[in-house]
Amino acid sequence: xxxxxxxxxxxxxxxxxxxxxxxxxxxxxxxxxxxxxxxxxxxxxxxxxxxxxxxxxxxxxxxxxxxxxxxxxxxxxxxxxxxxxxxxxxxxxxxxxxxxxxxxxxx
Length: 107
Fold this sequence. Notes:
Number of strands: 6
Strand order of the largest sheet: 3-4-5-6
Shape: elongated
Structural class: alpha+beta
Order of helices and strands: HHEEHHEEEE
Helix content: 40-55%
Largest sheet: 4 strands, antiparallel
């Protein structure tokens, strides 16, 4: 019986020590580097990185009038093409209802 108490205490102590030490997936410095490189937004479908500027542009036109959204995207260097907006390798697709942008998706 005593042997089980010793084993139980050892396991419990190991568990407590294991929980007390934080386990970080990446270091703070590496996270800061990713922030500088705009590599913190990951697409769930294929794991590719999307630049934060593209996401910021998509967020900037949400709930905005389509006229203002078009002016903004053109001013940021986006080019319209068959209902999508292209800039480099990235595409923004807008959903518009009653002349308002109701959804903006970065692809």
